[in-house]
Amino acid sequence: MHPIRFGKLFFMLLVMMSLVMTLSISACGDSDSNGGGNESAAQKDNGESQKSAVSDGCEIVTESDATALFGRPAVKGEGSMAVPGMLAECIWEWDTELAGGILQFRIWDGTMYYSAPPDSTPFDIGEQGYIRAPQALGADIMWIQDEKTIDLSYFNTGFGAPPVNAEQVKHLARKVSDKL
User: Fold this and answer.
1) What was the pLDDT predicted at 55?
2) What pTM was estimated for this model as a whole?
3) Beta bridge mates, 156
């Protein structure tokens, strides 16, 4: 297989695995953290949660935010398919022939989507937060704010991909938190 295609396939696999792991870990959270889920369902029934939803996450995490983090021009990526509970999403990417990076931002409806992995470190943001930064591969920050779960992740992969600076991702997370 051509190395460029292999790199892109590997990159897309990494992105999908990140999304699945985030949702799997979040689904294992304590169901009592949101009143057993009944309050959220009632809010959805009467449309209250939809009134406060942000329609486009890229209004919060902007192209200039992503470009500053990447150190190169950001390109808007394709979002994931509609997922129940996701209120907003924005994907920014950079790509060369051998390497790429992805910045993912999502807002989830409720605190039941929050669950800190065992290898995470507490991060002082919102009402409760964590950062997970495995070596220099990337950084995943999740926090609870105003009864919503916020997820901001940045990962690089491929030959010659620069290491992710977790402090820059923390700075962006604080900026996002201030906008919400």
Assistant:
1) 64
2) 0.71
3) 101
